[in-house]
Design brief:
about 110 residues, alpha+beta, Heat Shock Protein 90, 2 helices, about 25% helix, about 25% strand
């Protein structure tokens, strides 16, 4: 079982970032899948992307990539998301390309209690 409040915070933050870092007239793709006992949530935008050199710090507290400095935020969101995912024994990965967008993929395995 997943904590519904933590799952709500994860989804809201990742979706909010996708909107915030994209242009007004773009598509945000949200998908959920059930694959071999695993819930997979993906959120994909077509926004500014994340510079590769910032990838190792992305989930750190108060961390912001250089191309995000003019966009409002504290740098806490993805840190909290990563901690919430960890609390529920999940995984979080992302793919990004500058000026083409970012996709976050979050997975949770079904508990077998």
């Amino acid at each position: 079982m997943l904590d519904p409040l933590l799952l709500k915070h994860i989804t809201t933050n990742v979706l909010s970032n996708a909107i915030k870092f994209s242009t007004k007239k773009t598509t945000i793709e949200i998908k959920t899948k059930w694959i071999n006992g695993r819930l997979v949530l993906s959120v994909k935008d077509h926004g500014i992307g994340i510079p590769p050199e910032y990838s190792k710090h992305l989930f750190e507290q108060f961390y912001r990539a250089s191309n995000a400095m003019n966009i409002q935020g504290t740098g806490l969101g993805l840190h909290l998301v990563s901690k919430y995912v960890e609390l529920m024994n999940g995984t979080i990965h992302y793919k990004s390309e500058l000026e083409k967008g970012t996709e976050f993929v979050i997975g949770f395995r079904q508990n077998k209690d």
